Amino acid sequence: MKTWVYIDHFKGEVVSAAWEAVGVAKSFGMVSALVFGSGVESLAKAAFEFGADEVLLADDPSLADFRAETYASTLTALASASAPDLILLPNTFRAREMAAMSAIDLNSGVLVDVTALENNAGNITATRPIYEGKLFEKTTCSASPQFITLRGRAFPRPVRMEGSTGTLRKVSAQSGALTSVEGYSAGESGVSINDAGIIVSGGRGVSNNPGLGLDEKATAEKGFTLIGELAALLGGAVGASRAAVDAGYIPYSHQVGQTGKVVSPDVYIAAGISGSIQHIVGIRTAKLVVAINKDAEAPIFGVARYGVVGDLFTFIPLLTAAFKQKLGK
Ligand SMILES: Cc1cc2nc3c(=O)[nH]c(=O)nc-3n(C[C@H](O)[C@H](O)[C@H](O)COP(=O)(O)OP(=O)(O)OC[C@H]3O[C@@H](n4cnc5c(N)ncnc54)[C@H](O)[C@@H]3O)c2cc1C
Q1: Is the beta carbon of 239 within 6 A of some atom in ligand 1?
Q2: pLDDT in tens, 106-119
Q3: 120: burial class by Cβ within 10 Å (0-12, 13-18, 19+)?
């Protein structure tokens, strides 16, 4: 079985789920990694160290900025010439767009947000969430190549073996994009909620502390400061409900849920979040959920392993202090 893995990156920074995809592909046999970009030969080296046997490197100034047209047509040209059976990609917006365009060109289909894969003698069965994550279905793609995007952190990341090498094949880029990138505006730094092992999230409840004597926005700022401190101490990321995002307490990039990001951390701490179905959709594959909420009837307790009925403004500082002591920080 010929398996390819697309190494998704932004300006040379690889999405962790790409290495997870290399690990999955490796369990099926030989792996070819696709590295596209400009000045990205170092990523080929990393791909070998994460387990790729071969790297198809399209290193060309025309690929300096990600544009779906050039990246997808480069992938299409390679796949037309070499006929892989399976192309795995991390489930990022970039990779999904590219997979969809290339699959159309190749008259195939894409299975997205897959959380498990079975390989029965070359027949791949993918598991993916449906009905807002209430059910998981097993599905197959009858066309070839099969394009499958993998949910981040749903598969283990392989151990990096420093110094491992393989076959490097330089391939041509397909240039001629209709769009050009004018520039980028800086996002926030820090741990991304996609890659985080621990996420501490805040909801509308972060704006509710009359005792502080502050207005709603200032209270929310204080609440998210407490959440941020706990997340930073644990090496995690800060998440949020849509209510918190819509109220302007925190940018959209932090939103977890149906219209935000679907996350799979080891630990998800939800503070002042009621647990609407649209939020729960985003955390169904979290390994352990901890809820902090004043309302003992809040639905979030239905999905939490550990629940604290109480005020987040009281409990989070206690939790932070306890972790500081435990971690000797
Ligand atoms: C099409 C659609 C898509 C949506 N997509 C998303 C999505 O992607 N993500 C998402 O989150 N929502 C989404 N929503 C919105 C969703 O329906 C809820 O409105 C939202 O999740 C509620 O956010 P919340 O839990 O922060 O607020 P609330 O439901 O208002 O809950 C606040 C909670 O905080 C608790 N609380 C209050 N004060 C404190 C305190 N001091 N300490 C501890 N607890 C306290 C309260 O008891 C309450 O349970 C979507 C809705 C629609 C219709």
Answers
A1: no
A2: 999 999 999 999 99
A3: exposed
